[in-house]
Amino acid sequence: KSAYQSRRSVKLRTLVRSGTPAADFYDFKTLFAVQDFLLVEKTGESPKDHSARFRSLEKNFPDLFKELDREFSTYRDTYSKIIDKETCDRIRRIVEDDIGRYKIKE
């Protein structure tokens, strides 16, 4: 694992564990970071935008693709609406589950 990937893994764990309002802001960004980390590990490439992320996840991680597809409209809503605590908690649980399922370590 590269130094960059190791630092990113630690940052992912820190964001998930912090439970602060600032971390709530980063829940979706953390979800994307987890997905991008896994894509880099598997394909050697990081997606350049959301469309590339969707295509690569659909091909390489169909379960993560479905997960992102279900939540993406919520992510888009965050640009114009305040996210409630339940939504933040749901996204945080998804991130924690993905970190555990794919054994992303510090």
Structure description:
- This protein is mainly α and 106 residues long.
- The chain has one domain (3-101).
- It is built from 6 helices and no strands.
- α3 (27-43) crosses α4, α4 runs antiparallel to α5 and α5 runs antiparallel to α6 (85-101).
- The longest helix has 17 residues, at 27-43.
- Residues 14-24 have low confidence and may be disordered.
Quick structural gist:
With 106 residues, the chain is an all-alpha fold.
Blueprint of the fold:
Blueprint: H1 3-18, H2 21-25, H3 27-43, H4 50-60, H5 62-77, H6 85-101
Helix pairs in contact: 1-3, 3-4, 3-6, 4-5, 5-6
Oligomer: single chain
User: Low-confidence spans: pLDDT under 50, at least 5 residues?
Assistant: 14-24
Distance between the termini: 11 Å
What composes the largest sheet?
A: none
Structurally, the number of domains stands at 1
Number of strands: 0
Number of helix segments?
6
Q: Percent helix among the residues?
A: over 70%
Mean pLDDT: 81
**What sort of overall outline do the alpha carbons produce when their principal axes are compared?**
globular
Instruction: Give me the Rg, rounded.
Output: 13 Å
Range of strand content = under 5%
Please write the string of helix (H) and strand (E) elements.
Answer: HHHHHH
**SS class:** mainly alpha
Q: Key terms for this structure?
A:
106 residues, mainly alpha, 6 helices, globular
